[in-house]
Design a protein that fits this description.
Length: 102
């Protein structure tokens, strides 16, 4: 949290940048960290790779869990999940994106 790290994916870096820039509220939209029928917008990932991809996501989740716990202890910033199915919802509150767009 005190300096910039790459994490495991671009979302981790984007979240860290928002924290370092001093944003008080951060809303994560479309970041569910789980697989269902489709994993991405492109065809690189197919059904046979779903389990392998979820395993990779689970590794990313460990880094996010550490970050969320560290942020909670410091009480800054407030981070919200805007995805009802996000695995982040076990650590940060879910909020319907429609409620913040009004």
């Amino acid at each position: 949290i005190h300096d910039f790290r790459c994490g495991a994916d671009s979302g981790y870096g984007a979240l860290q940048l928002a924290i370092l820039l001093g944003y008080e509220e951060i809303y994560l939209l479309g970041y569910d960290m789980c697989v269902s029928k489709h994993t991405h917008y492109h065809r690189r990932y197919y059904k046979r790779e779903f389990l392998q991809f979820q395993k990779k996501l689970n590794g990313y989740l460990q880094l996010y869990e550490e970050m969320f716990h560290e942020i909670q202890n410091k009480m800054r910033p407030k981070i919200f999940s805007c995805s009802l199915i996000s695995k982040f919802n076990q650590w940060i509150p879910y909020i319907d994106v429609r409620s913040i767009l009004r």
